[in-house]
Amino acid sequence: MLEKVIKACKKAGEEILEVYSKEFTVEEKEDRTPVTEADRRAHRIITEELKETRIPVLSEEGKEIPFKERRKWKRFWLVDPLDGTKEFIKKNGEFTVNVALVEEGEPVLGVVYAPALEVLYFAEKGNGAYREVKGKMEKLPIGNWSRENLRVVASRSHMNEETKKFLENLEKKFGKLQFLSKGSSLKICMVAEGSADIYPRIAPTMEWDTGAGHAVAKEAGCELFVYEEGKLREPLRYNKEDLRNPSFVCLSLEIKELVEATGGFEPP
């Protein structure tokens, strides 16, 4: 099924780039988030490609599915046809197509494709995580997580007061931080590949924003932990009644040991 998902994501990417190359209109959904024709086209392609798997699909651009129906699902496809619509609108290339297979609340297969950058990340439980750049494939992680000069990747759009406080506490404990910025689920992938050490997200996200990247991170030796009161809790779970994610921190298990040895993320 991994090959099928990669094919679906690349086909969706082609449609997205066709819209991206022209003038396009931006609409606003009921939740006041932007949506474009590219989102809709990608959704149609992915759902059509996955139809023959006979596994239900939960997509950001699909119809709302009541929890009383979803709760019966043992596994399902979790889809964000265009993650980073704001990046798409700004035309900075940092948007992705995300597809994950979730089993019993855990992402076990994930594909993150950035069509404008020609970068593909994919993983399957037990078979490792990989990055393909313009046809060249490498197993993740590629770089090394730093125990000296922590590299923190954060969102340009969601640098709220809670995140600033988190980073200030981190700097007090570990010294000067190196700040990196990236759009969409590429932030999770940066931690997975070893080009960043920590990605804190102390702001709202939805399950489809993280599922595919989470699968890649897990197979690369990382995890997305719920963050609460200065502590890392359990890993994120999926197909909750409320599809919003709690605050979380993405980091390698190696860096997690370092952080916990110094008392976690609480202020020094």
Brief account:
Mg(2+) 1 binds at residues 60, 80, 82-83, 209. The chain has helices at residues 2-20, 37-50, 67-70, 85-90, 161-174, 186-193, 207-219, 253-261; strands at residues 27-28, 34-35, 57-59, 75-83, 96-103, 106-114, 119-124, 129-133, 136-139, 151-154, 178-181, 198-201, 205-206, 222-228, 231-235, 244-245, 248-252.
Question: Could you characterize what this model shows?
Answer:
Helix 1 (2-20) runs antiparallel to helix 2 (37-50) and helix 6 (186-193) runs parallel beside helix 7 (207-219). This protein has two domains: 2-139, Fructose-1,6-Bisphosphatase, Chain A, domain 1; 151-261, D-Maltodextrin-Binding Protein, domain 2 (3-Layer(aba) Sandwich), CATH 3.40.190. The radius of gyration is 18 Å and the shape is globular. It has helices spanning 2-20, 37-50, 67-70, 85-90, 161-174, 186-193, 207-219, 253-261; strands at 27-28, 34-35, 57-59, 75-83, 96-103, 106-114, 119-124, 129-133, 136-139, 151-154, 178-181, 198-201, 205-206, 222-228, 231-235, 244-245, 248-252. The chain has a seven-stranded mixed beta sheet, with helices on both faces. Strands 12-17-14-15 form a four-stranded antiparallel beta sheet. It has 268 residues and is of the alpha+beta class. It has eight helices and 17 strands. The N and C termini lie far apart (47 Å). Mg(2+) 2 binds at residues 80, 83, 209. InterPro entries: CysQ, CysQ/Inositol_MonoPase, Inositol_monoP_metal-BS, Inositol_monophosphatase-like. It is a peripheral membrane protein.
